[in-house]
Structures are given as C-alpha cells and as structure tokens.
Amino acid sequence: MQVQACVDCHNNHPLTPKADWQLGDVRGVLEISTDITKQMALAEQISSAIVIFIMFAYVLLMVIFFFVTRRITKHVSYISKAMVELGDGNVDAQVDLASSTLEIGQMAKAFTTFKQALLKTQALEKRQQLMESEKIDGLGRMLASVAHDVNTPISIGITAASLMSDKIARIEEQIAKGELTKSDMEKFIASATESMQVVSSNLVSAGNLIKSFKQVSVDQISEEQRQIVLSEYINEIVHSLKPRLTRAKATVLVDCQQDCQFYTYPGLLSQVVSNLITNSLIHGFGQKPGGKIIITLNGNAEGNINIHYQDDGIGIPVEHQDKVMEPFFTTKREQGGSGLGLSIVHTIVTQKLAGKIKLVSNQEQGVIFDICFPAKCPSKEAEP
C-alpha cells in the first residue's frame, strides 16, 4: 500500500484479517489473462485501411489539383495569347470563356471590356485623324479656288500695266522727236488714269481675297481663341469661299439681327460654316445653278450665339436625316465624298463649342440647321 488513506481503510475494515497494516505492505495480487489476438488483427486491418484511404485521397487530390491547374493554366494562357494578339494589332482576337469558373469568366469579361475600350480609342483616333485630313483637304480646295480667282485680277493688272508701259514708250519716243502735242499728252494722261484704276481695283480685289483666305486658313490651322465680331467674321468666311460660290452661281446672304463681339475659337466656327456651305453646294444644289443660302445670326440674353443656316436646295430625304451626321455617311462617295463634312460640324458644335445643332429638312424644300452654343467656349482642357 502506497497511500496512508488505504492503510487506514484496511486497518479499520470489519472483515480485515489483521489491523496492523503499514505503508508498503502487499494486501494481495490480482492476475487477469485474456486473448487479444483478434483485436490486434482488427486494429492492424483498420490501420491498413486508414493508410490506404489516406494514400488514395492523396492521389485523388493530386489528380484533381493537376486537372484544375491545367484547366486554369490553359484558360490563362488562352487569355494571355489573346492579349498579345490584341497588343500586336489583331483586333479580331476574342476570348469566349463566359461559361467558365467565376474568376476566369471575370478575366474573360475584363478582356472584352479592355478590347472594346481599345477599339473605341482607336476609332476616335482614326476619326480625329480623318477630321484633320479633311480639314487640310478643305484648306487645299479653298487655296486652289482662291489661287484661280486671284489669278484673274492679277492677270488683268499685269495686262493693264504692260499696255501702260507700251504707251509710255511711245510718249518717250514722241518727246525725243519733238512730235508730242497737247492732245497726245491729254490722251496719254486719260489712258494712264484709266489703266491705273484698273490695276488698282484688281489688286485691291486680289488683296481682299488673299486677306480673307489668310485669316480663315490661319484660324483653322491654329484653333486658338481670339475676339471676333460675329457678322464680320462670318462674312470673311463667305468671302474666302467666293470662288466656289461664283462657279456654282450660288449666293450667300448673311443677316445679322443682333451682332455681338465675343471671345471664341474662330477656326472652329470657320470649319462649321465652311462645311455647311460646301454641303449645300455639293448635295443641296448639285448641278443646279443659282442656289441661295441665308445665314441668320444673333446673340441672346443667356449669353448664347444662335446661327440659323438655310438653303433652298433639294433637301435631305427623311430616311437619311438620322444618319447624315454620322461619320462616313455620304450619298456622293462615287464623286469623292468622304462622309465627314456634317460629322465634323456635329462634333465641333456639340463637343468643342459645347452647343447643340438641330436639322430640319423637307425634301425639295431645302435644309435648315439651327446651331446654338455659348459665347464663352470651354477651354481645350475641358474638351472630351
């Protein structure tokens, strides 16, 4: 016995054979024997089953991991390849993994979103490039017309000056021979006066044409803000287009109901008016001479500029009216039309001038464009 409590219990028990038990005494020995062979065999079987299950589960997990990793890697590689193709300029690259796992599906959706944004950016850049190209082409056409019309007064002036030179030579010859009479001198003075008037008027005409073209062309190229008087500037634009208007036998009337002076981008305004007039000459009047254009201008108390543009051409068919301001829409493509004229007008008015443009047209009754934009234009940094 190892505990005093056990010694006390055995010494005081009524059936104890003696009452002097002490710590360390042996009270008795119990020996139990049983056969556990079956239990050991069962335990060994269970242990083997557990080991086999663990190995099977490990192999199964490895197989699942392999196929899942392979599937994910395949999809990621597929998306990466499509991204590389898109980066190389292949806009037809696609990723169709919408039915895949949530994460892969989100990656595929992100790729599609990125592609659409890239295509939109490229389309905007291309459109901007085409608009710039169209602007330069328009200036080239205007320059060709101006050069043609400037040539006429200059040629007349050169001819008059040449004739005057011949007359001076004859007068000098008469003076040298002493044959100059008062009558000859009076005729010479009258002829010289007439010739100088012809030279002067034609040079003034050429100078005005060049001045108008110079101001309008510089404004279109620079697109810088400056202060203008609305009616004066619109008349300058019309004057720069005079050669084309003359050949088409068309007239433009500028009616300023309430003039105003404001700070704006005159180059943008020039592009708007020039494209509208060009559109009327090509599409509205066509081969029909004698077309008439009326441009009504006014400012209002809200600080807006209103331009009412109207021609008496053939008008725009109803089925085309919703599309005429879309990029590249034209019914004259076989005649060299780019389909950008009215698109440029719409872009400039709605985006760069922060205004609105409305089309009203009845076939065979001409076309009307109502344009309204704030006199105070947004800065270029605020443009979209």
TrEMBL record:
It comes from the Bacteria. Pfam families: HAMP, HATPase_c. It is an enzyme of class 2 (transferase). It catalyses: ATP + protein L-histidine = ADP + protein N-phospho-L-histidine. One of its GO terms (molecular function) is phosphorelay sensor kinase activity. Signal peptide: none annotated. It is found in: Membrane. Keywords: Kinase, Membrane, Phosphoprotein, Transferase, Transmembrane, Transmembrane helix. InterPro entries: HAMP_dom, HATPase_C_sf, HATPase_dom, His_kinase_dom, HisK_dim/P_dom, Sig_transdc_His_kin-like_C. Its main location: membrane. The chain crosses the membrane at residues 46-68. Residues 70-123 form the HAMP domain. One of its GO terms (cellular component) is membrane. This is histidine kinase. It comes from Litorilituus sediminis.
